[in-house]
Amino acid sequence: MSPQSDEQIYHPASLLSRVSAQVTHLLTSSTTSTSVHVSILPVCGLIFQLSEGTLLTAAEQQTLLTALARAVIDSEGLQENVCAAQLSPIPPRLPCWLAYQVARQANRYGQHDLAASIYEKLSPLTLSERTNYWLRGLWEFSRAEAQLLLLARRLHADCPEPRNDIPGAQEVTRSKPQPWVDDLIDGLRQASDIVHKTRSMFICVGGSDNRWFQAEYVGIRGSLYLCLAELCISANYFTHVSRWPGRYRSRCTDSVTPTAVRALAVPTWVVRQLDLWCGLADRLCTLQSQCLDADQTTHGHLYAYPFIIQLVGFFIDVLQSIRDVYGGADKLHYEQVPVSENLSKGDPFRTVLQELRQIAQSHMKFNPLHTTNFDWLSYLALQVARVASHWPRFFFQRLQTSTVRLVLLPKAGNNPEDVLTVSSEVGHMVQVMGVVQQRSRLPHGQVARRIHAVEVELTVTTAFSETPGLHRRGVGDLVFSSIRSARLQRDYFHCEFCVRFPDPVQLSLNTAQRQANTIYRVSAVAILSDTFGTRWRLTHASGAPIETTLVRVESTNSSSLSVPPTPTKPTDPADSRVHV
């Protein structure tokens, strides 16, 4: 086959025409409807992949959906489909379930405009409130992504690249405000508001898993938009409105010396932005530690773009480097961070990350004693916003399910409010037993990550006081903490802890009788370890509820006031603490 024919075949427009041409072939073949359904999704995925960087136009979307509908209807030998979603003002119509699958495929490859139009047509056809919330949430999320994407690409086509400040220059004039920055800020904040509204819709869906991953994924996406908007606002204000840099000198001579540079105070906006981005990074790590059942592509997505531990880490490195410049560091933090190679070759962030690093490197050598232009930070945000996000597979499909059940003994009863009374004279033996169940939807029941060990973290905190008027005093104070490891025996594990509670008589002496009737809460949580050594800290929503029981401590020897007080925060000597 000649190169010209190859180029024609693999062009998206050519593929769309070939999809339409298959309708005639299906009329004369014995292709079943099942095989047609199976073959349609890979064809759509190929078209979406080849359209990377551009959204399908309305005409191209109409051509694709019409061709798919004709292929399905003709293969089934039907002229009308009573359970169908009208995807265009003219026939034919595409079956509901297949239309939903096409929309999911569009989200996974960044064609959010097409997905939003499909979800909008499917929403009125739902039969349950939960399904309606789910589809409307998908529609809102896709619409927000598509609108921001179109805005960012339009702004990028019109705005010039930010110029570099000359490090040796004695004075740099303030640059004129850029109108596109205000438009980008408005677009990011509007997208953040819509996405957080979508998160509420996903929470309303409910269900056995409560859509915890989808809700948190969308919430983090909205927080990312908000962080980008706040970064643009701070950089824009500091560049065009803020005080002259001489005001930031704490002790500085007339000549520019290294000592004077080190005496500069770091601008407040840099510190505030670091706090915002570090908080987002912690939230991302928490989400990733719960995704035990996610497929490998989803973990690659979370690590790369758009969420993104790599993306958030990049902005943290940039802000820390700006702080280093004002602090007079010999080597910037940005120069000490290696470029990670753990990125999927097909992920759009792999290319964007290199561009972002080049832009940051070219603007990092600024003179903090002179007026500094930080418009390039807004340009970084624009570069991120103009790349279409690829939703992970785990957002729509779960290939395996892991659940953990814990039993904490002894307990006073089945009611969580029942209180167990123990003596303070001896250590209290606590047993934690549990079972780990893993089920797979893959062929032959294969599990991607098999759990082989469990770490049980036992904590004792003050729950409340039975003394009138002291209900809130001292609640949540840590009294005891310990971690035990146990290997799975088939699916079961067992751990034992020895807990010594504070003596209530001594506490009464120290606190003037105010804490004589304190109730303690004993909590156990499981931390899972797979065969690769990765540790997963699941939550109640992700399949690992916390087991708790309430304990009241009473003293059998009320005259033992001369006994040395028990430490209020004892720790098991054999404790193997590992922070998650």
Automatic annotation (TrEMBL):
Source organism per UniProt: Paragonimus westermani
Pfam families: INTS7_C (PF22965), INTS7_HB (PF24437)
Residue span, Integrator complex subunit 7 C-terminal domain: 405-536
Any one of the GO BP annotations: snRNA 3'-end processing
Residue ranges of every copy of the Integrator complex subunit 7 helical bundle domain listed in the record: 112-303
Highest taxon, organism lineage: Eukaryota
Protein name: Integrator complex subunit 7
Record lineage: Eukaryota, Metazoa, Spiralia, Lophotrochozoa, Platyhelminthes
Disordered, as annotated region: 556-580
Coiled coil: none
Annotated Gene Ontology cellular component terms: integrator complex
